[in-house]
Design brief:
It contains three helices and nine strands. It has 184 residues and is an alpha+beta fold.
Amino acid sequence: MALALAPAAMANDFTFAQAGLKIDLPNGFSLLPRADIDQLYMPTRGPGFVIGNAARSVTVSYDLKAHDLASFNLAQTLKVFQQIFEQRVPGLVWKEGKLLEHEKQQWMQLEFLSKTGGVEYYNIMLVTAIKDQMLVLNLNSTVAEFPQAEASLRAVMKSIALNVAVPEIVVNPAPSKKPLPVKK
């Protein structure tokens, strides 16, 4: 999966063409290289893309998974997610699990604490159906930094825009077969 970031008016607007998704991020956030993502997450479970602050203590991850949620009841799916997380997420402490509507779309919102490599994280996970796939956004921060990061992370949530048209950028277009008009 290739990342397509559209040119943006502000440096903190990121557009993910694969999902038609645009989010506004706090200043100073940048795209993490794959090696950093693999360090922060289990390599087989890591998201496709992560954008974070310089210290990598506050991140927003994005992934598009080949699971068609559109035909599922999201209230039931939310309960299933919670059961799976209880089995698989180390140090899990639930803060909230609910459905919400944003951008005329129903989302699952899961908020929880987790522990990875001895560090405790506050996670805000948002999941919805996009076409025949599952869009997953995880906004997280170390628990120690969460009080300072919470307002910014909640602003990212509010900034989510779907069905964003991303202009196609043509590199090295094929030459026109039509002759150019000649000025007389």
